[in-house]
Write a structure and sequence with these properties.
Blueprint: H1 3-15, H2 27-46, H3 51-56, H4 61-73, H5 78-92, H6 109-113, E1 132-133, E2 138-145, E3 150-154, E4 157-160, H7 161-164, E5 178-183, E6 191-193, E7 198-206, H8 215-218, H9 224-227, E8 230-237, E9 245-251, E10 258-261, E11 275-284, E12 289-294, E13 298-304, E14 311-313, E15 318-320, E16 325-329
Length: about 325
Amino acid sequence: MDAPVLRGHQQNQRAGYPVGMQLTWPQPARFALVLALLWVVYVLLWTPGPLALRMLGLYPKKLGSRVVGWAAACPLPQAWRGPLLGRFAGHYGIDMAEAEFSLEDYPSLQSLFTRRLKAGLRPQDTPTPGGLNSPVDARIIASGRIKADTAIQAKGLPYRISELLKHERGAERFEGGHYLTLYLSPKDYHRIHVPLEGKVTAVSRVEGELWPVNDASTGSVPRLYERNRRAAWTALGTGSAEGLEVAAVLVGATHVGGVVIDRRWLAGRDLPKNGGFTVDLLPCTPGEDLGTFEFGSTVVLLIGGPRAGDWVPLRTEGSVKVGQRLGAYR
């Protein structure tokens, strides 16, 4: 018998316990258990926010998001689509009257979530000098001026624009400009559209964490938009939008790992998992496809350029639809 085990039996006998009750742990297993317990205590005590958010710190968010994404993309038998997708749509309040197809024509939950709308339901507001239209159906949850490379996510919590645009150089070109944060709930239409007339200059992607992006987390988790997975699309304004530069940053969240830039802006290349590249001034017009959320989240819209000081937001809170004007030159 190994010496440590024998000593354990002898200690049990001296204490009056039956030998059979001795539970021995190899030294590495004990060390791992202590580390695991310390990690649980650390996460629960030092993760900011309510208890539910702190508990989420123990959840494997990337693995869970991959599993949910796989399940959502699995084809459903025709007979199951109406009942299952109907229950999902009813639970979240999805307006199926706007959807391009009926429930039974969507082969999976993912295809329902990334559905297109019937033609003509989201017209673009008429062009006006400096006009910038909403790229999404969403709720505006934050807005303001970009000062000292900083924007506010919620409740005074700051984040850095240079880190948000991690793989793009020259974030200072947005200094003194504006930011608008648009939150997409599960009921919303989850395609993102071009917000201005212009020329696309860069695309990028950051492989980050997958914390939730909701009222509880944006008000509690520091630098949330810097930390989460995200993709960015940047364009210079032309025509009525001359003098502006706009970046649309698609921020992922728990179970929303898919932040997809439309392939038309990639010039035949694949977007790196963690990187980006410049684009040769591809022309874009308001309403064109920009990207897709696979299970929705948040778009941070940055407005910079030489005329950013003349640009005034017309909407700083409340709900907005694709194509509705967000702001224009004063």
